[in-house]
Design a protein that fits this description.
Length: about 180
């Protein structure tokens, strides 16, 4: 049985949650995953199909897996906000992320996503001082998988992009409900 072209080389680099409150989500992730420190970024601008979204996000690694918490904070943030209830705290699986550092693989991924027919609600390039560090796009696979897939290409200039993200060992004894 052949894998879907979108998934044949997929690595589970990242698990991302849309959250209604970044501070409360950090507390939940601390209890559940044993993460005691996140890199928190506020008012990040992300390109969506609808326009520019404003987001707060927090990143940490547990073992080799990155956990991302994303709070929609204005602008065209419907790609994140629509999975959350209108009231109260919520933390919902939003996407699994794949990371590549291979330009040819990235081009193949972009072609496969376009060919798949899945909507691409989010996509763009993180640029710092005019230098592209990371290309990213989402495939809206919610009807098939129940969540989005994010694909990221870390350019050679972006090799240190995650170097400041806190890293934590995978430890037993977490997953505390309250």
């Amino acid at each position: 049985m052949n894998a879907d072209p979108l998934l044949e080389r997929f690595n589970f680099f990242q698990t991302a949650y849309a959250v209604s409150d970044i501070e409360e989500a950090i507390r939940v992730a601390t209890r559940f995953y044993g993460i005691d420190k996140f890199q928190v970024n506020r008012n990040a601008r992300i390109h969506t199909k609808e326009g520019e979204a404003n987001l707060h996000f927090a990143l940490a690694f547990v073992g080799d897996a990155q956990i991302e918490l994303i709070q929609p904070a204005g602008g065209k943030d419907g790609a994140y906000r629509r999975v959350l209830p209108n009231q109260g705290f919520a933390m919902r699986l939003h996407h699994f992320g794949h990371l590549t550092t291979d330009a040819a693989e990235w081009e193949g991924i972009v072609a496969a996503v376009k060919e798949s027919g899945f909507d691409m609600p989010v996509g763009g390039i993180f640029v710092h001082e005019g230098v592209p560090l990371m290309h990213y796009l989402y495939a809206d696979t919610r009807e098939t998988l129940g969540h989005h897939l994010e694909f990221m290409f870390q350019t050679p200039h972006g090799k240190d992009l995650f170097s400041q993200v806190p890293r934590h060992a995978l430890r037993a004894g977490y997953m505390q409900r309250k």
